[in-house]
């Protein structure tokens, strides 16, 4: 198997750079026009330890949307517009940034996202749906599997009660021999420890999404992880690793409706 071809999505998808540039434009336009927002809310002391919180009219469920970039690129400013669909269905959405590999180890990024979720829970009193794209899908799964009371006994068990990984990477070991894996600086044992596929299934509502036009490996990882954790899996017909995000600004899309229902089923913590 050509693992580089299977996992290097920017090389695999023609026009990927233009799609990502389009995300930046759409996200900036959304941030400018959405009235109820708190930008750059700190969840730590580092310059990238910030999240943007977008709120709908009224008090309702809370979700997190974590950007991708193979833990080595992008930030929250590329993903703001992905909050629109859920917001128009009454769900508040937080969009965090995090530090990047190789400047920090991947385990540090997991800890940062745990800190962001803890801050968000303390602010809202809500248990969370966490959605994440690509690398963000791995982080969403890790958050659902977190022992929150080991971090802070005041936090509720199942603080992240639902996860929606989108084109997630749930087995990191296959990345290690690729150009992507070089920047992660992981041993095989570290990669396995950070792979949700090999961890005990976490309780909660899990729905995994992948594009129908993605590589065989991304589609396999989604199916295998959903089955291992007792969740559901969905392929979006014709979607590649980037266009798989197209539904999220649209409140009428069935996937957004499903995500809103997942968030709505979570009782407050």
From TrEMBL:
Domain Alpha/beta hydrolase fold-3: 64-144
Pfam families: Abhydrolase_3 (PF07859)
Record has tRNA-binding as a keyword: no
GO terms of molecular function: hydrolase activity
Keyword vocabulary terms for this entry: Hydrolase
Superkingdom, taxonomy of origin: Bacteria
PANTHER family: AB HYDROLASE SUPERFAMILY PROTEIN C4A8.06C, KYNURENINE FORMAMIDASE
Record-given protein name: Alpha/beta hydrolase
UniProt organism field: Neoroseomonas oryzicola
């Amino acid at each position: 198997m050509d693992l580089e071809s299977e996992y290097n999505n920017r090389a695999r998808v023609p026009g990927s750079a233009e799609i990502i540039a389009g995300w930046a434009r759409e996200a900036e336009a959304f941030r400018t026009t959405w009235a109820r927002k708190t930008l750059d809310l700190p969840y730590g002391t580092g310059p990238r330890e910030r999240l943007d919180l977008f709120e709908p009219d009224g008090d309702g469920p809370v979700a997190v949307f974590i950007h991708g970039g193979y833990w080595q690129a992008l930030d929250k400013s590329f993903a703001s517009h992905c909050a629109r669909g859920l917001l128009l269905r009454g769900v508040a959405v937080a969009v965090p940034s995090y530090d990047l590999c190789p400047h920090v180890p991947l385990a540090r990024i997991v800890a940062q996202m745990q800190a962001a979720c803890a801050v968000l829970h303390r602010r809202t009193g809500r248990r969370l749906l966490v959605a994440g794209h690509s690398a963000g899908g791995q982080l969403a799964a890790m958050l659902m599997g977190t022992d929150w009371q080991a971090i802070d006994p005041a936090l509720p068990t199942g603080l992240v009660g639902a996860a929606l990984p989108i084109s997630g990477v749930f087995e990191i070991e296959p990345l290690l021999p690729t150009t992507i894996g070089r920047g992660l600086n992981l041993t095989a044992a570290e990669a396995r420890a950070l792979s949700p596929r090999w961890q005990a299934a976490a309780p909660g509502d899990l729905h995994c999404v992948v594009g129908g036009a993605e590589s065989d490996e991304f589609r396999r990882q989604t199916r295998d992880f959903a089955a291992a954790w007792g969740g559901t899996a969905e392929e979006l017909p014709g979607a590649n690793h980037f266009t798989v995000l197209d539904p999220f600004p649209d409140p009428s899309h069935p996937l957004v409706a499903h995500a809103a229902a997942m968030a709505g089923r979570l009782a407050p913590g």
